[in-house]
Amino acid sequence: MKRSREQRRESRYFYFFISPWLIGFLVFALYPVAASFYYSFTDYDIIHAPVYVGLNNFKELLHDDHFWNSIVVTLKYTFISVPITLFLSLIFAILINQKVPFRGFFRTAMYFPSMISGVSMSLLWFWVFNPQAGLFNYGLSLFGIKPIHWFLDENYALWALIIMSFWGMGGGMLIFLAGLQGVPAHLLEAARLDGAGRWRTFWSVTFPMISPVFLFQLIIGVIDSFQVFTQAYTITRGGPSYSTWFYVYNIYINAFKNFRYGYASAMAWLLLVAVMLVTYLIMRASNRYVYYEGRRGR
């Protein structure tokens, strides 16, 4: 069917008004992604023209000790930080969801730290963990524990960054709070009338209803933990004995310190594949445990 002149004019206006976004997407998003995919198969140092080397970059990764160490460090951080952060976010959301005075103040106070940028937060925690004058060591001294050189000790550097990650749980708390407030009141009332206690009501009614929120938080938390960089760069620089040599920090070192952009691109694409694979596995497992209204899980 032939379009009218008015429809063609509206189409031109449409493309004209979205052109800034379209140009920005093509130049600053799609082109860098496509270029990095090509560079992952080349030897490229940004000064000389890229030389095609096939799968050599990926083969070299298999024999790179720093590559495997960065995977181990990142997975340790993920398996410890993400579950604890989810648990604390949910606990604080449950507490703030109660009818207590000054609820608005507590919500704001809990969320406010997550608004501080990564660099500012890292510098703040650098002083908190200061071995001589830091608040953390001062608190430990009250229990007779000697000062710990957090960022200078390979046994504690990663743990310090894990503790730092709890600082941003305010955002997750608000999302859980929204999920808790969306639980139908009649279901909670029915559970109470049936004689269910608080724990049984939470486990059998509240948690299934907020399980999609929990799934969302889990996926976002895992993806974020795979991309830790700011803390490792601003404070530890890889840490003593490579104890905080995160995967993304390893990509940065190879790209902007060693000028091996092809090698770094290969690492970046492996990270993308890993994120997609982990997300897929979590989504597959969620079919059994996540409840969606109108659909029964398998």
What order do the helices and strands come in, and which of them pair?
Blueprint: H1 5-39, E1 42-43, E2 51-52, H2 56-61, H3 65-96, H4 103-111, H5 118-128, H6 135-141, H7 157-165, H8 169-181, H9 185-193, H10 198-225, H11 230-236, H12 247-257, H13 261-289
Antiparallel strand pairs: 1-2
Helix pairs in contact: 1-13, 3-7, 3-8, 3-10, 3-12, 5-11, 8-10, 9-10, 10-13, 12-13
Structure description:
With 298 residues, the chain is an all-alpha fold. The chain has one domain: Orthogonal Bundle (MetI-like fold). 69% of the residues lie in helices and 1% in strands. The protein contains 13 helices and 2 strands. The protein has helices at 5-39, 56-61, 65-96, 103-111, 118-128, 135-141, 157-165, 169-181, 185-193, 198-225, 230-236, 247-257, 261-289, and strands at residues 42-43, 51-52. Strands 1-2 form a two-stranded antiparallel sheet. Strand 1 and strand 2 form a beta hairpin. Helix 12 packs antiparallel against helix 13. The longest helix is centred in the first third of the chain and has 35 residues, at 5-39. The chain is globular, with a radius of gyration of 24 Å. The model has no long low-confidence stretch (mean pLDDT 89).
Condensed summary:
By secondary structure, the chain is mainly alpha-helical.
Distance between the termini: 46 Å
Give the C-level CATH assignment.
Mainly Alpha
Work out the count of structural domains: 1
Task: Identify low-pLDDT runs.
Answer: none
Widest β-sheet, arrangement of strands: 1-2
CATH architecture: Orthogonal Bundle
Please estimate the helix content: 55-70%
β-strand number: 2
The CATH homologous superfamily is termed MetI-like
Number of helices: 13
The major sheet is characterized as: 2 strands, antiparallel
- N-to-C SSE string, H for helix and E for strand: HEEHHHHHHHHHHHH
Average predicted confidence as pLDDT: 89
Strand content: under 5%
CATH topology term? MetI-like fold
